Structure formats: structure tokens, C-alpha cells
Amino acid sequence: MNPADTAFIILCATFVMLMTPALALFYGGSKNILSTCMHSYAALGMVSILWALFGYSLAFSGDISGLIGNLDHVFLIGVGGEANGPAANLPHNVFMAFQCMFAALTVALISGAYAERIRFSAMLVFSALWTVFVYCPMAHWVWGGGWMAKLGAVDFAGGAVVHMASAAAALACAHAVGPRTDLGKTPMIPNNLPMTLFGGGLLWFGWFGFNAGLAANALAGHALVTTHLATAAGIFGWMLLEYLRFGKATTLGAISGALAGLVSITPAAGFVGAMPALVIGFAGGMICYGGILLKNRLGYDDALDVVGIHGVGGTWGAFATGLFASAGINGVNGLFYGNPRQLVV
Questions:
Q1: How far, rounded to the nearest angstrom, does the alpha carbon of residue 209 sit from its chain's CA centroid?
Q2: Quick check: 85 and 77 in contact, CB under 8 A?
Q3: Predicted structure pTM score
Q4: Per-residue model confidence as pLDDT tens digits over 5-41
Q5: Is 153:81 a contact under the CB 8 Å cutoff?
Q6: What percentage of the chain has pLDDT greater than the value 90?
Q7: DSSP letter at 167?
């Protein structure tokens, strides 16, 4: 074990934990503020319990046909302060706690799609089932030694496991529960834009732990730089399209662009250079803006644009990783560095 890595990942875990209350603020700018905030806090509590009971074991314990883990660590058996987990540089319980924060945030993200039209009890049942039957297998496929990892897929911090997966669930939820009854009849303006901006700023802050939580080394520093640059570029990609469309940029557009940049760089943060990160973020801001416009054309009511930002941005980021990854950074080359297979994977 490395004491510096241990201290660093404990700090990163707290950053990622803060992202769920930050998401509550970001989503809380919607009309039904208390209900929307409650979704995030309930997800943080319930998923943490499920993770300790058996979720962590299903994601990171052994391997069954590349599809799911086993039950070796059910009830956190064997998950203590020893370095006997997937990360040899960390105490097993620190690695488990860090991954727990990712699981809770992912479930909370989905709530933006069904906000303002779901019973709390139904939200709890859905979130519990989705954690067990979707998140745990996907985390195993990519990070736990499952079939996607064996294929050579790379996802540095969750572009697929967190953002694409939560957005797919959000789209399904939006179709299942249907649109809000007053959609199109009354203006759906945010309840509290300063709250949304503050929540978005806290998400930006927490994302440094989200993307750089690997070890206290140069790669973590690199991921921090690429994360920040892509986020900054995402703001201007989004605002540029707003300006071209309406003749002015908006504060909601600026923070939405920042989130688009964050999502877009998440799978690529530790695989691409600083200049490609700017390109990924800037393009992500524009692509996600287009993704939100498609919502009206396709006719689904995604109240807080989970699909347009997390789904579209995560997909673009995964694609961009296959384009811009450089072996000089983290051992993986993409298409632009002579390895077209990585883009296919």
C-alpha cells in the first residue's frame, strides 16, 4: 500500500460524494425543488446500503463468464484495511468506498428524467432494481474484469458506466412515465437559476476527484488538467450555438456547457492530451446542445436533460477516446495515433 495514494483516494471519495448533493442543487433549480432534491439524497443513502450488502461484490469480486462478479465480498466480507482488493496500492475498504460514491451518483443522475412525475416509493423500487441489475453488471464489464475489459475497452472515469448507462435508463423512464401534464401548456422555466449555477459549480469541483481518483501520481494531475480544459471549452461551445441561434448566450447555457464538457471528457481524461481535451470539450458543448434540441423533435419529456447531456456527451466522449487516445499518456493509442481497432472497441 501507498500512504500517499490512500490519502489521495480518501479525499477523492469525499469529492465524489459531494457531487450527489451538488446534483440535488443543480436539479433543484426545477419547479418541484424538494421532491427533486430528495431523489438525490435517497439515492445516496439507499445505494450505499445496497453496495455494502452485495452490490460491491457483484461488481468487483471475481468473474462469472465476463458478465458479473461473485459473492465473495457479500456483506463486505474480506473488505478491510488490507491491500487485497482490485487496487494493490490501496486498502480494500478505501477502494470500495470510492466506487460506492460512483454508484450512488449514477442512480441520482437518472432522476432528472422523471422529475416532477413519479411517486417516491416507485423511485426507490426502480433505483434499487436498476443498481443491482444494470449498474453492478456494467461496472463489472468495464472495471471489474468483465467482457468489455477483456475486449480492450477503456473508460477512464465512467463515460459509459456512469453517463451512457444513466442516460439510457433516463430515456426509458421518460417514455415509461410519459410527459408532464402541463408540458407545452405553461412555461417550464427553472425555479432558481442561482441554485442551479451553484450546484453546477460544485459538480465541476467534485469532478476533479471523479476523474483524477486513481493514485497520487502524474496521471492524476494530467486527468485534472484535461478535465478542467474540456469543461472550460464546453462552456464556449454551448454559448456559441446559443449566440448563433438567439443572438445572446445565457447563464443556464453556460453551466449546461460546462456539464457537457465534464461529461464528454470523463471517459478520455487519462488517455488524451491537453489540446485534444479542448477539442473534445468544445465539440461536446455543441453536440450536447444539439442533443437537447432533439428532445422536442423526438417527443420525450426528459425534464432535466439527462439524455441530451449525459447520454450524448458520454457517447461522444467514448467515441473521442477511440480517436484521440495516445499511448504516450496511458498506454492506449486511438485512430489518430495509428490504432483504428480502439475506435471500433
A1: 12
A2: no
A3: 0.96
A4: 999 999 999 999 999 999 999 998 766 788 889 999 9
A5: no
A6: 88
A7: H
CA 27, 30, 35 angle in degrees (round to 5)? Answer: 75
Q: DSSP letter string over 83-117?
A: S-SS-TTS-HHHHHHHHHHHHHHHHHHHHHHHTTS
Q: Residues 65, 67, 71, 73: what is their CA dihedral angle, to the nearest 10 degrees?
A: 110
Return phi, psi of residue 285, to 5°. -60, -40
**Cα→Cα distances 240→42, 197, 253, Å:** 37, 19, 10
- Side chain identity at residue 243, one-letter code: Y
CA distance 97 to 52: 9
List own/partner pairs for 255-258 with CB under 8 A and 24 or more apart: 255/26, 255/196, 255/197, 255/200, 255/201, 256/200, 256/288, 256/289, 256/292, 256/305, 256/309, 257/285, 257/288, 257/289, 258/200, 258/204, 258/231, 258/232, 258/234
Amino acid occupying residue 166? S
CA 189/CA 29 separation, integer angstroms = 9
What pLDDT, on a 0 to 100 scale, did the predictor assign at position 304? 87
- As a whole number of angstroms, the distance between CA 311 and CA 163 comes to 6
Q: Report the C-alpha dihedral over residues 29, 305, 45, 66, rounded to 10 degrees.
A: -170
3-state secondary structure of 186: strand
Band (pLDDT 50/70/90 cuts) for residue 311 is very high
Handedness of CA 196, 201, 204, 205 (dihedral sign): negative
Using DSSP, state whether 81 is helix, strand or coil: coil
Per the listing, cell 457517447 goes with: 315
- Predicted confidence (pLDDT) at residue 183 exceeds the cutoff of 90: no
Q: Over range 86-111, report the average pLDDT.
A: 97
CA angle at residue 144 from 142 to 147, to 5 degrees? 55
pLDDT band for position 275 (50/70/90)?
Answer: very high
